[in-house]
Specification:
- This protein is α+β, with helices and mostly antiparallel strands.
- The chain has 3 helices and 20 strands.
- The chain has helices spanning 106-116, 158-182, 252-258, and strands spanning 7-13, 22-23, 26-30, 33-34, 40-43, 49-50, 62-66, 69-74, 77-82, 91-95, 98-103, 121-124, 153-157, 202-205, 216-221, 224-233, 260-261, 264-275, 277-280, 285-289.
- The strands form 4 sheets. Strands 1, 2, 13, 14, 15, 16, 17, 18 and 20 form a 9-stranded mixed sheet that branches.
- α2 (158-182) crosses α3 (252-258).
- The longest helix has 25 residues, at 158-182.
């Protein structure tokens, strides 16, 4: 097969932290990352951030940007269009480097409470500059950060996913073989790993070695330039099937075997905007090494 230059093959915006995202054909990238990305989150009565790690039902809800507003939808529930609140931060929150956010209002709280079957609030971050990046993850307080965990732009590659899925298939085959030898029922057939488990903003496809992104120092696509900040350590959230919300063992099992270092397992990279602008699907990707 002919070699193909790397291109942006997919882009996703996640307006609400831990909700399903919305695929887009073009993306405006500002200093804090994709426009509208992770500017909302759910908190409990004590201001503690709620995520799909403990509440997988959140992954069944879709947050879709509509201008500066966001439309919430989930199976069995009417959709709700939520305006960006214009008041000052009025809800104490417990999130690293952030102590308050702005209430989205009673209707949004009621919708999200129905979604999770418990009392929760939807809050909005008015200005990512109020929450800077951590030096531990390759940034500084001068780098604005929305409600994402570590970095403004999460980048993955299809080459890495293919390699990881191959490892997962090998492990599954080993389990099947062991079960047959022991006269036990074989494991359920496996489903290929879906990139949605990793929740990237940008996916790069083309002639790349698996995990080439680990060594990127810079990435240029469209009118945007990004610099490397950190590799992305993966958590139990990746083991939740995005369609069924059922937890399994992969991809952490395969990552632990092949991609463990410094006490974590790694997939994808976090990057910081150096030059802001717009990226479109199909834009050629140019990278330089660290």
């Amino acid at each position: 097969m002919p070699l193909t230059a790397p291109v942006v093959s997919a882009m996703t915006v996640f307006p609400v932290k831990s909700f399903a995202g919305t695929p887009v054909e073009s993306m405006e990238v500002g200093a804090s990352g994709p426009r509208g990305d992770r500017r909302w989150m759910l908190v409990d009565a004590d201001g503690v951030t709620l995520t799909a790690r403990k509440h997988p039902r959140m992954l069944a809800a879709v947050a879709a940007p509509e201008g500066d507003r966001v439309r919430l939808s989930a199976p069995g529930m009417p959709s709700l269009l939520v305006d960006v609140p214009d008041g000052p931060p009025d809800v104490p929150v417990r999130l690293s480097r952030l102590d308050a956010a702005t209430s989205a209002g009673g209707d949004a709280d009621a919708w999200c409470s129905q979604l999770l079957g418990r009392s929760v609030r939807l809050v909005h971050l008015d200005d990512p500059a109020r929450r800077g990046m951590s030096a531990e993850h390759g940034g500084s307080p001068a780098d604005p950060l929305a409600l994402v965990d570590t970095g403004p732009v999460h980048v993955t590659t299809t080459a890495s996913l293919r390699r990881l899925d191959g490892w997962a298939a090998e492990l599954h085959d080993e389990r099947v073989e062991r079960a047959l030898r022991a006269g036990e029922p074989a494991p359920e057939p496996r489903r290929p790993l879906d990139m949605r488990r990793f929740r990237p903003n940008l996916v790069v496809d083309g002639d790349l070695a698996p995990f080439a992104e680990d060594g990127w120092g810079r990435l240029v696509a469209g009118g945007v330039e990004l610099r490397f900040a950190d590799r992305c350590g993966r958590c139990v959230m990746t083991t939740i099937d995005p369609d069924t919300q059922v937890k399994g063992r992969e991809p952490l099992l395969s990552l632990a075997r092949h991609r463990r270092a410094d006490g974590e397992v790694w997939f994808g990279v976090q990057m910081v905007p150096v030059r802001t602008g717009r990226i479109r699907a199909g834009d050629r990707v140019e990278t330089s090494d660290r």
